[in-house]
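User: Here's a chain of 120 residues. Predict its fold as tokens.
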Amino acid sequence: MTDILRLVGLRYRIKLGLLPEERVLGGEVRIDIVLHGDFREAGLADDITKAIDYRKVVQTITTEVSSHAYHLIEAFAEHLAEALLNTIPLVSELEMTVRKIQPPLPVILDGVEVTIHRSR
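Assistant: Prediction complete.
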């Protein structure tokens, strides 16, 4: 059995899309992440070094967002999941939803999203 930490509604401006203007101007994405791990030691010791430090999670996401451009929302989600699993050792698995807000389509649409699940 694992414990769960959720980060909900992180918002970033990212260079994501197939159109040239999307890759120059960027667009808004919203990210929800569910991180699985064993948080028992952290809870008993009240010690951040035994916990998933969500400041480090946010820092990892911010680095990934600011250092790359992507054509596909799936590629962004995959790279982000890999970065989180490589950077946060207490995470045993994760589920992440990335939502591209108001993509440039000829319809009124709140967003397009992809959800992935990855584990070590």
